[in-house]
Design goal:
257 residues, Arc Repressor Mutant, subunit A, three-stranded antiparallel β-sheet, 8 helices, 2 domains, PvuII Endonuclease, Chain A, seven-stranded mixed β-sheet
């Protein structure tokens, strides 16, 4: 996999944003592959409203977000209400995130996040544009990447180092059980508890350590009046899907990392 953007493909463009778009899209088309089945990617015609790439093999679609520097905690996206609507639609694409150094053109990070990791809780509404703006009243959004479990962040390149293709495919396959959680609220709970487990930063942990996030989870799910029971339910679900092992009473071990 090439680890540097080809700046020659953007020589005819003046705008920095256009140059970035052309170079990064060219790189993904040439170096990327579908994380679901491993096939080559095809690029949609420009101005397709939802996605940038698709796979001829399995028909998965991908939207590319790229930026200079690090991926960061948040990624700027489009219209807030359109994004919220997309989360429950049939044509919601998966995402690619690409970060690079604009001086050396080196790829820093390239990762994919499956579409089923996107729930309303990780979409942040921005303030409406002022009345003096050309699109007065328009409301955009940010994707809060830090609130997505690392389990769903599947790297092709991490900190400038290429990841083996088989590892990419296996990690994608390990997330498939989340796709089957169709209820958006239930999925939000599952992902939030998974994020809390990751924050413990231990392979083996206790139920009480997950309970320590009770206030955090209550704030994210204010309508639920029995957070501890919900936590136990999610741990049971993760155990049934072989993401966790139950070692003994009140103790768990991550089986997939």
């Amino acid at each position: 996999m090439e680890l540097t953007l080809n700046k020659e493909v953007a020589e005819n463009y003046i705008s920095e944003s256009q140059r970035s778009r052309v170079m990064t899209e060219y790189w993904v088309k040439k170096s990327g592959f579908c994380p679901n089945c491993g096939s080559n990617l095809e690029k949609f015609e420009n101005n397709k409203p939802v996605a940038d790439f698709y796979c001829k093999g399995c028909r998965e679609e991908y939207e590319l977000k790229s930026k200079n520097g690090n991926v960061g905690k948040k990624i700027v996206d489009g219209a807030y209400f359109m994004m919220i609507s997309r989360l429950q639609s049939e044509n919601n694409p998966n995402f690619f995130f690409l970060s690079y150094d604009r001086f050396t053109f080196k790829i820093r990070n390239f990762l994919t996040i499956p579409k089923y990791f996107f729930v309303p809780g990780i979409i942040e509404k921005r303030n409406a544009l002022k009345s003096t703006a050309r699109r007065a009243g328009w409301i955009g959004c940010n994707i809060v990447v830090k609130d997505i479990p690392d389990f769903g962040k599947i790297y092709y390149i991490q900190n400038g180092k290429e990841i083996d293709k088989n590892d990419v495919l296996n990690k994608w396959n390990n997330t498939e059980f989340i796709k089957n959680t169709h209820n958006i609220e239930a999925k939000g709970w599952l992902l939030d508890v998974l994020l809390c487990i990751e924050k413990i930063k231990k392979t083996e942990f206790t139920l009480d350590e997950v309970y320590s996030f009770e206030a955090y989870l209550q704030a994210k799910h204010p309508l639920n009046n029995n957070v501890k029971a919900k936590i136990r339910q999610q741990l049971q679900y993760l155990r049934d899907r072989k993401i966790l092992d139950f070692t003994r009473r009140g103790r768990y071990r991550l089986s997939i990392q």
